[in-house]
Design goal:
Dihydrodipicolinate Reductase, domain 2; alpha/beta; 9 helices; 6-stranded parallel β-sheet; Rossmann fold
């Protein structure tokens, strides 16, 4: 692989524009161009980054080694499969696809083409996750809350695939074992899909997790609380801080409780994610990125949650 990776960005809306910005300033990378169906938007971002705008992906794909795909979820399968068949490494924003079978097909296609396929579960790269992960041992109970004000983007899927999937992916990465039980409820409010959802999961290692996600809240909240023997960890993904409360045994058989505020070092999660993607391509080996297989597993759980929600919805409210 060339020392300088040639990269393009397909879809430069809310997220894709930041992919283009980061690549344009990344060492060892040359941003070749951007593509977007919205010509005015595409030309604007291209001009900002000093690169050409491509109205379709065909011409762009012939000039690059890799691409970031940040189009609506409903178009992921078509766009990513085209990129892989053209011989490009791909980082696709989460969820990997709308349907599990499509995600599995992309994973097999990437393998057959010998290309890297990463999925943009960016919360994995939040610096505070790196800080607290070594502190997590045999958790018994986990609470996840992910709330956001309403925005039209992302509404081609339910809130589970849109927001909650971040927390599902994190839970799956903690080594809690297989999921043994799932119960879920949700409700469409402002879209045709559930906009608020609550899930309870039981893992084979004994941990019970509850997750709440809403995209119709008045404010933002991205927190996870982890309860385990002699330690409680409260993580705020937004501020990149965590409060770690630990039980300390004292002489005489008593106990003392100590709390410590832990702050992560400065670091942008998306920059870390894209850097990992580039390093994986250059080294031709996995560098802690979220693989296509992991993206499919997160989607598989999200899809199960979606089906359970549908089972409890009123007749005539089908959405899956």
């Amino acid at each position: 692989m060339k020392s300088s990776i040639r990269i393009g960005v397909i879809g430069v809306g809310h997220l894709g524009q930041h992919h283009a910005r980061i690549y344009a300033n990344m060492d060892g990378v040359r941003l070749v161009g951007v593509c977007d169906q919205d010509a005015e938007r595409g030309r604007k971002i291209a001009e900002e980054r000093g690169v050409p705008y491509f109205p379709t992906s065909k011409a762009l794909l012939s000039l690059v080694d890799a691409v970031s795909v940040a189009v609506p979820t409903s178009s992921h399968f078509e766009v990513v499969s085209t990129c892989l068949r053209q011989g490009c490494h791909v980082l696709v924003e989460k969820p990997i696809t709308t349907h599990v079978s499509e995600g599995e097909e992309l994973v097999e296609l990437a393998k057959s083409m010998g290309k890297v396929l990463h999925v943009g579960h960016v919360e994995r790269f939040n610096p505070i996750v790196e800080v607290v992960r070594p502190l997590i041992h045999r958790p018994g109970f986990i609470e996840c809350h992910r709330l956001s004000p309403f925005q039209p983007r992302g509404t081609d899927v339910d809130v589970v695939r849109d927001l909650m999937i971040h927390d599902l992916d994190l839970l799956l990465s903690l080594g809690l074992g297989r999921i043994q039980e799932i119960d879920a409820r949700g409700l469409p409010v402002l879209t045709d899909f559930p906009d608020v959802a609550n899930v309870r999961m039981v893992f084979e290692e004994g941990c019970v997790a509850t997750l709440t996600a809403s995209r119709i809240s008045t404010g933002r909240l991205r927190k996870i609380r982890i309860f385990q023997p002699e330690r409680y960890i409260s993580v705020d993904f937004g501020s990149k801080e965590a409060t770690v409360t630990t039980r300390k045994k004292v002489q005489g058989g008593g106990a003392d409780v100590q709390s410590q505020l832990v702050k992560a070092k400065d670091g942008d999660a998306l920059t870390r994610e894209l850097t990992c993607f580039v390093q994986t391509i250059k080294k031709n080996e996995m560098v802690s990125g979220v693989t296509g297989e992991e993206g499919v597993e997160a989607l598989r759980v999200a899809s199960t949650v979606g089906l359970l929600i549908q089972q409890h919805m009123e007749p005539g409210q089908d959405y899956v």
